[in-house]
Queue: 4 jobs
Job 1
Amino acid sequence: MGNVSRPRDGGTSHDGTAARPAGIREVAQRAGVAISSVSRALSGHPHVSPAVRARVYEAVRALDSSPNRVARELRSRRRRAAGVIIPDITNPFFTSVVDGIEAVLRRAGYCLLLTNSNEDPERERENARLLRAEKVAGILFTPSGPDSAAYRELAASGLPMVAISRLPGGAVDGGTVDCAGGSAAAVAHLIALGHRRIGFVNGPAWSSSVQERQAGYEAAFRKHGLAVPTDLVLHADLRQSGGYHAMRELLTRRDRPTAVYVGNNLMTLGALEAIHEQGLRIPKDIAVVGFDDLPWATSLQPALTAVRLPTFDVGASAAQLLLERVEDPQRPVRTLVLGTRLVVRASCGGPVVQLPGNDSRLEEGVCA
Amino acid sequence: MGNVSRPRDGGTSHDGTAARPAGIREVAQRAGVAISSVSRALSGHPHVSPAVRARVYEAVRALDSSPNRVARELRSRRRRAAGVIIPDITNPFFTSVVDGIEAVLRRAGYCLLLTNSNEDPERERENARLLRAEKVAGILFTPSGPDSAAYRELAASGLPMVAISRLPGGAVDGGTVDCAGGSAAAVAHLIALGHRRIGFVNGPAWSSSVQERQAGYEAAFRKHGLAVPTDLVLHADLRQSGGYHAMRELLTRRDRPTAVYVGNNLMTLGALEAIHEQGLRIPKDIAVVGFDDLPWATSLQPALTAVRLPTFDVGASAAQLLLERVEDPQRPVRTLVLGTRLVVRASCGGPVVQLPGNDSRLEEGVCA
DNA sequence: CTGTTAGCGCGTTCAT
DNA sequence: ATGAACGCGCTAACAG
């Protein structure tokens, strides 16, 4: 008996109800070819006659048909999608990273599934589970805490993953900025300007990037043969309020620091609030350097000296790393550390000159 | 003949190669039940015996199996995913909106496909096509230009869609902030402080939100029986550089304004740069009010008076609107306009008091 | 070069 | 309450 195809309307709705979008079957029927020919034509397969190809395209246009990636990727067992888990979508650092991720992912034909864990371990786990269920090809991940359950589950699942900014200990691909180098440059700048009592508002100690910044801070002192003023190092949470309270605490000490280095952009805003609140003048009363250079840096009065971070590139190269791992799961683990640049403005006094910066991309390969 | 199931390894990899994650079949086999029973158990179906349910869960845990949403949603013809198209992921306004979107989407079990068109109409079209191919249930969209091809294609496709911030003319769901009301409040505040020559740096005229702000600016003058200083209204692109150049142009006029109202956050930063560059003092030489209140507002010296926008809520309610439309495609079109609040700080002089603000949510239903 | 066939992993009827 | 069949929309073998 003949293959009676049951009636379906081909995209254009004749009545009021929303018609199901025309699929490969309707296209095949209208073009008068087999379904598989449509598939080949649309997938850019080599062995398709120009005639068929043209008629297929014509039918697609006439029906306003759109390929079904869900079915396509289920069948081909090749999901061209990647997941992102970030702890705070509101932080400009991460949005810029996501910008970079999106750019290279889209160029590779991937789509981006974004989730925000809002620094909540439980939401983080749910996000990881969702992304697994969506069968993404891989995940770009910034853990929100020191011992992330989501991270462990993901690692155990064997799903390709690259860590961003905060690098966990294990053998995982990762991309980040040179926190140590950037911090050393910032503090060295202050030392060169004669500062010795340099406060440091840093983040929670479990984060690898926080540890790196600490190392850079200390290295700058040691390089100049100076003792590290450990009493001036404070650990705050990475939010604006954290920076505010830490700075306030620093400023109310008897032996107040003459300069301060703040470890992330939101905390820097909080630190500035505290400084203004005390009626202190920048840079006369206190010099300020921030980690992470953002649009508002030039709108402050005086303009803020800051460590510029290649955030877009971090995202872009992390995504690249992920794509490469998806291509070759056996490839040795790689960690990319991107160089920073100290942008000298007016918040430390002294001449406003452009320092060379360490644009060199340190790249280290760890065993697989 | 018997149905010979070909061998597959159930999740745990015995050799070095990455094993395919265990699916419903492996779970069924290990639990000793049929595939359909597993499906029912995992989908929370009512008629499943506790015994079977328990064994299924146990098998899922043992195999570390994760459901396949791709297959599930292909089969059930119900894709629980929504797409987002924004013009600039770097703009804090949009990231906050996305934050709200993600929150309600995730709560509804949806996942979020994010695309950034970077103000490029061509990228925008590609993003729209990708999202259609992903068969998302709906799209949250901020068109990047006056006559967006992507918008037209999407509207023609009949895919549920809600416009964000910039509302196109047609009968489409939309969510935005009360630009007119917020602008009127900002300008009225300046007028009350005695200012008459109030500059206005606004965005490109095609945008509905720009038009609304213009209306609010004019309304404030008219309400006080004053003539609108149309010569002080400038249209810049919405970026920082746009604000800088417009402000610069305003400040170099013979009859310089005594106050300025800037229509978005990035342009405000640019305007501040221009003001500082001219060596002008805020608020003595010029008063400043910004549209969109961001974290750095309180870190400026003096702190910035600004119109606070319910950006998170815009995203959240837009997502809610989308979900409702997906549920009921016939529902009449709705447009949500969320109220703003003027946050008075020091950048205009005068007493720092909290104004009431129009928290009322204007909500208007247009015919379907 | 093109059509036919057999599934991808799962939900959903039908039986029982 | 449970199992067997069928198919979602598409790709990938094979045959012709």
Job 2
Amino acid sequence: MSPRPYRMERRREATDQNRDRILAAARELLASKEPSARFSLEEVAHRAGVARMTVYYQFGSLVGLLQGLCDSLAMAGGMSHLADAFRQPDALDAMDRFVAVFMDFWHSDRPVMRALGALAVLNPEVAAVLDERYDWRRKGVRMLLERVAQQTGRPTPKRMKEAADLLYLLTSFSTYDTLAVPGRSHAVVIRLVQRLARQILS
Amino acid sequence: MSPRPYRMERRREATDQNRDRILAAARELLASKEPSARFSLEEVAHRAGVARMTVYYQFGSLVGLLQGLCDSLAMAGGMSHLADAFRQPDALDAMDRFVAVFMDFWHSDRPVMRALGALAVLNPEVAAVLDERYDWRRKGVRMLLERVAQQTGRPTPKRMKEAADLLYLLTSFSTYDTLAVPGRSHAVVIRLVQRLARQILS
DNA sequence: TATTTGGTTGTACATTATGTACAACTTGGC
DNA sequence: GCCAAGTTGTACATAATGTACAACCAAATA
């Protein structure tokens, strides 16, 4: 028999709220530096005020939870503005916006980004999740450089590859994490990286 | 009673050999990408052909093992050449050598470097070990820039801080790991980073 | 040769984590 | 009132770290 056309709005709401609390707990735990708060499914559940089994029911596994976390971060981190960058008529303006979007993204939940990157290095499954979700950056860099090349006269392929790798490096979390230090505001970091990006193309 | 003046050369040799085999097994395991080869004390011992208790006896704990691994990597990765860099009479030559030493270091056992960095992010104890051992880079950058500033006329403090952070970024593992891709030789990576470092100072 | 000592090994145990299975329960939706 | 989605608790299997302790081995020493 076919599934009945349930509405279930209130239930949806309740379970979504649970999901959100679980994700929030996971964020908190990943961001927390105290060694007492080790990141584990058990602790996430406890912090979310939910049974361990609920986390399994909602996300399937620890990797599933991280997958949900990635999506949640992309939503909250302003990755939706990425399309705006490419709508800029001028290629260099587009690059500036591109840089800014990623700096904002890394800034939005910095300790979690750091932890996720580390988990990805150590766990191939997590790496696959991140690669899939952060592939936008690779593609974006390529597209941007294509536009810049067309606008300013195409450079040699070798220089293109070099510029692509450098722009990829500049927009990486590691770059943001190294340059965003106490005493240098977020806005200044963005302008600094934008300046470096333009230097690369000259 | 005071300890007797033991010689024990042959025993030393034997145990040192054991230590080396354990460290080698740890390196292999950390470098191995197959998910079957999870990094654990148990697996390290098994690969080294040694009982688990021996690893504990020699290194105390997993963190102790990683500590030993760091020291071993520094020895094998040519960090001893760091002093040579600072013996260069010209400041910019010194910087070139400085860059080359670190690129060689990151290159020497790349997958292990990658894994160690990730472990450090997730484990404060490991982070302390790495910070202690890799502080040379922070200090080195500062010293280099002091020399460059004296040689070329001292720039503003703000630019100094910026240059220091950028040079720190350029000599990081992350930079090496991003730029050393198939099709770009190690030597080319070094020259590329050296060129970027000089650009920073202009 | 006999003994001491440093290093190795095995066993047992406590603790913590992931993950699966399954039954019981709760509550919104029909 | 009934159904089903979602939640919870219990039990269990597996694997990892870490500690304690006793047994053992072989080199070094007296």
Job 3
Amino acid sequence: MTRLKRADAQRNEESLLDAAASVFVTAGVEAPIRDIAAKAGVGTATIYRHFPTRADLIVAVYRHQVEALAEAGPELLASSATPFAALARWIDGFVDFVVTKQGLGAVLSSDDPCFDPLHSYFLARLVPVLTGLLDAAIGAGEIRSDVDAQELMRGVGGLCAGASGNHRYDARRLAGILVAGLRQSG
Amino acid sequence: MTRLKRADAQRNEESLLDAAASVFVTAGVEAPIRDIAAKAGVGTATIYRHFPTRADLIVAVYRHQVEALAEAGPELLASSATPFAALARWIDGFVDFVVTKQGLGAVLSSDDPCFDPLHSYFLARLVPVLTGLLDAAIGAGEIRSDVDAQELMRGVGGLCAGASGNHRYDARRLAGILVAGLRQSG
DNA sequence: CGAATAAACGGGACAGCGTCCCGTTTTGAC
DNA sequence: GTCAAAACGGGACGCTGTCCCGTTTATTCG
């Protein structure tokens, strides 16, 4: 087996996650690395060593919530009246998650290579879930069949991007309209 | 009347607009100021003097197309079979415009104060047009009546944000779905 | 036509940020 | 207790937006 991590390294990683979570709330997911390092009481190199890219850090901070979202898919499918209702509710949950994380929407719809690990993670974890929901709704004849889960996720992410300022902008409602647009007579 | 601009200043402004248009195409609307200045053969201060913020430069570069978009609203309304058809076609035009300008979508759904002049201009020029289209469609009973033009524009902008990479992502189709979601029975 | 003045210019100084290296400290095994 | 490896911290570097200042150029008026 591989060598265990040193105790101090593990402690630092936890401090870093706590600090990042805290800073993300107040300053968004694009807060300066230095701020996070300072809050955790470590040097900038340490954060860079534990989390090579900002995306890795974001992934680590929100892993639990993403997992919960992934698990919610099948559960909603089982507990909702129709697959379409499950889909709508899942999208609502996704929007709530993204919107409450300052700047996450923008990051999700950015194509900066720096965020590739984040995209990969979201895609790997959530696209299959959303695909399941879409397929069920398609199978039930509730929605059009030409929409790709990845495309829809990216679209909803984009919808959430400009939701920070309270410009009378309700991302959840818009996402609802988008989902409504999926309905079809066929 | 106010003093006329100096001839060289006017020439520089034109060079700057040409250079910016050219650089925007290849490097997106967030290309470094220095690159644009270099391409125009002027110093960085000159560009900064003519266009205090990046948003002002973007506005100047795309003014013609935005104007065209604004004028297209009433025309489409007059030439389309139904207000909803006009709305759908106008949104298509808007999406085409945004998508073909690298990074413009991201900028439109950003809330960086740096881009405020851009938001103001788009809002001032296009929101009334879109409101006209929406009102007509609402009046015809074709769509729901609780959607705000500004909100919709921002939403469509967000949809366009992640359209640069060819991640099998078709912003126009997604926007179409969103518009379809506006339809209603009542 | 030529000098004076105001406008405009160019390039560099400065600060903030991400990235990454290197001399130093800490840890854990023997 | 000793020592090699692992981890650390802070600073150097490069890139960017912002802005200032000494110089150049256009216009105007005698």
Job 4
Amino acid sequence: MTDHLLSKGARGRPRRFDPNAALITGRALFHTHGYEALGIAAITEAVGIRPASFYAAFGSKAAYFERIAEAYVAEVLPLETFFRDDCPIIDSIAKLLGEAARTYTACSDQAGCLILESLRADRNDEGRRIALRIAQIRREKLQAFIARGAPAVALIATDVVTVTMAGMSAAARDGVSCVCLEQVAAVATVGLRSLIEGGA
Amino acid sequence: MTDHLLSKGARGRPRRFDPNAALITGRALFHTHGYEALGIAAITEAVGIRPASFYAAFGSKAAYFERIAEAYVAEVLPLETFFRDDCPIIDSIAKLLGEAARTYTACSDQAGCLILESLRADRNDEGRRIALRIAQIRREKLQAFIARGAPAVALIATDVVTVTMAGMSAAARDGVSCVCLEQVAAVATVGLRSLIEGGA
DNA sequence: GAATTTATTGATTGATCGCTACATAATTCA
DNA sequence: TGAATTATGTAGCGATCAATCAATAAATTC
């Protein structure tokens, strides 16, 4: 991680910056400002490089964002952590929603979910297209997990979880507190429990 | 409405276009593309005027959007329609959420709520600032209505409704169907009923 | 040392952004 | 009829956008 400059067998002039660090920096910037509002100039200034170096390393703004978004979805609220076969599905969902409330409000400068917030853009926005693909994969994964414990209502339960998380992400960006979102998650869980356990 | 060209007492050269029609056109465009993604060029082309005429009539893009957003919030899902004193608060909320599901999916090119979707932007985005002010006023109004029927849990119930509507608006933009959103609204209502009626 | 390879710097490119200056056209009021 | 007023068309402002070009620098390979 710190030996990015060494790269023994590399020919040519070595990089003067760490691409991984640049991805971390970019993640924070995209999370704060969004895909469209964040310009190359702001990225390169924050990383401490010139545009040409940025494009040599990452190819394009879209490719740069895609790498960041892929890493984000793999790290933040990974579904495998919550859905285990020895745990009632409703408990898994409750834990997921509660943890989402905390994650989305952990840093006021980067509130909400990077992926879900990147969906809020024009249809033809490149950032939205990338985020949409990632969000759909995640959604299918979630639905598969829920289907294992509640096959009859998996689709609607997945929609409820998805809508709730999107709403919590939006609310977090509008400044709603962690405690409030935890309560929202709890109320949503009540409805979901009723749905899954076959209540009215 | 059709006599905008007459305006008996008006001095100077008369307008060649209907500002009200231009507001309608702009509402559809903003709803489809969002504040930032919609440029003056696209607006003026759709309305059939030149930029100079646009600025003479509306002052700025922000002022134009503000007039559209104010009209939108007054017309779409007006809270007074749903909250009446002779109706249990949970029924009012259920009707509001159900109608939101239908409204948000009525037109696929303008899915979701114009105000809520305009909140998804950079903090310093002018469109977001305008939408945020309108959304906050609406939120306070909603909380006041809910407090009349359920004062003890008005704050959290308001948060749940707000989050659910924001999530439904986002889902509608991602292509989720009306039927699915109606089911989501129904599940959310179950949780809210439990909250309001003091259940577990 | 010479050739090759890769990354850097610095200066731009063409497109688009919101917005406006200027002259002209069309109307009302005196 | 002429002055005042308002809207229009043309043309372009400075700023910013993502992305790139040519020249140079720093490494490896031969």
